[in-house]
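User: Hello, beginner here. Can you help me understand these amino acid letters and fold codes? It all follows right here:
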Amino acid sequence: MSQNWLPKHPNLKVNAPLVDQQPPETRTQRRRLRACHECDWIAALPPLKSGEKACCPRCSHVLVKRNRYPAQRSMALAMASLIALLLAVSYPFVSFSYSGVSNRIELAETATTLIAFHQPLVAIGVIMTIVVLPAVYLIGTLWLQYGLLRNAPLPFSRSTARSLSHLTPWMMADVFIVGALVSLIKVAGLADIELGLSFWAFCVFAFLLLMTVQSIDADWMWFALEGEPLAPEGTLTGASAASQQLTSCPTCGLINRLAPNGKHYCVRCHERLHPRFPHSVQRTWALLAAAAIMYIPANVFPIMTTTSLGNSSPSTIVGGIVELIQGGSWPIAGVIFVASIIVPVGKLFALAWLCSVANRSDAFNAQTRTTLYRITEFIGRWSMVDVFVVAILVALIRADSLMTINPGPAALAFGAVVVLTMLAAMTFDPRLLWDTPITKYTGQGDARKEVING
């Protein structure tokens, strides 16, 4: 796709791989346009150097973020992440001993043990979010970046690049680490705990996975893969895309003309396009209603049952928080309270309110409500902490008649609440907050350029 006569990136070495030498700014002499995914405002991208980002001038959403050596960095981090994951699944995760009885578990047992207690859906959710999906993401990153570094994309690179953005919200290795720490602190007062090599390897893996996701320069990657077709003729900056019968691809960012037959596909990545997500408000309401219904059994039924010396003690989410407070574990109780009560309930109310006020905003309220939407979308996955705590404790505390922990029916219900609220946030289209009532905006036609913190 690139041409050797074009100028190289001023911040990169001459002997850098071709894909790293020539970012989009140096491969084209025309202005590159983007329509914001959150407010639909069309802006021109300014030339960016490493460590800079372009933000929407109307809602401040990040349109493009430029990284140094994007292909090399992503490939190196992905490879290191896979090595750490391999170590994490190959060695003991954690062990405990209690009154002469000991038990040691591996990472995969946090999921497989749940199957023995007739919780296959919870087990699938755990193993998919902490191992399978991250592994698929990392392998896809290696496949994609290796082809770009060779200046010859490998087969299925376009489909792989599309899949990466869809996988990102469902990878929860960092959330699992928090759940593991909460579990171990709860058990530490009852038994002796020993952390295995797998635990430390998984901590490294979670950090490297986060760095890998942040290293992906989607704008640079898609330009290297497929170039960038011209924006539709007559596209104006400083106006919404919908008012010009245009829309932005949510995957690669390219502005596309809406087809008259109603079937819209991006000309670059072939992602299905919509001027607005079909029935966005109705679908969000339906998912919120389902989540609210599932939240009732999630709190009424026990999330786990502790059996000690023949005596069984079922524990609900709220009951577990009260027990932690009575035991003096205020920080752990606070974490569980925020993750299991504040976050899901807050998301339900926030998204319900956004649905009720969609298309009834002014410029000031739209900005505030968009910020609220970003917060709800970001925090939703952290509610999985309680599910991961149950998975770890059930696998670890197997001391026969002395003490065992069994999962309760609330684990599945609460997991469903987390998934449904995440889907509700994904289904809601924040561009609705900026639509018809806001007919004019006096912002700039160029995206705002900022230096990335850190």
